[in-house]
Amino acid sequence: MLTENEVIQGVENFLRHKGITSRKRVMSKADAVKKEHGVDLVVKLENENKNGNWYFIEAKGNLKADGSKMKSSCNTNFRWALSQIILRINVDPRKYNYNYGIALPKSDAERCKKLIEKNWALKHLKIRLYGAFYKDGQLTAKEYLPKNIYS
Prior knowledge:
This protein has helices at 4-16, 73-88, 106-116, 120-125, 146-149; strands at 23-29, 41-46, 52-59, 98-105, 128-135, 138-144. The protein is α/β, with parallel strands linked by helices. The protein has one domain (4-149): Trna Endonuclease, Chain: A, domain 1 (3-Layer(aba) Sandwich). It has a six-stranded mixed beta sheet with strand order 1-2-3-4-5-6, sandwiched between helices. It is globular and about 45 Å long. The chain starts with a helix and ends with a helix.
C-alpha cells in the first residue's frame, strides 16, 4: 500500500537509474499532500548536448495522504489518471522523445495492465505503466513498456 507521493518517488528513483544518459533532471514534481496540479512528475534524461527523452507521469496511490485506504485504486483512480495523461499529450509521442505514463503501486499496475492490453488508442499513444514498490527499504518502480502491455 503506497500513497501518491510514494508512487511518485518510486518512479523518480527508477528513472534516475534508467539508461546511460549523462544527466537526469527532475523538471517538476507535484506534492499530493499540497494538492498541487499539473503532471505529477516530469523528468528529462539528457546527454551533454541537452538532447534526450522526456517522461511525463501521472501517479495514483492506493492510500490517501493521511494513510487511510482508497476505495478503488485500480478502476476509478486508474481511469482518472488515464484521462489526465491523455489530456496532457500535446505532441505526437511517436515522432518526439516524449514518453507518457501512469504510475501506480505495483500490485495495482499488474491488475490495471489487463484493462488496457487490447486498447488500440493507448497502444498508438505509447502510454506506459509504472508499478512502484519497496525493494530493500527503498522505493523504486517497474516499467511496463508499450510492447509489453498492448497486444
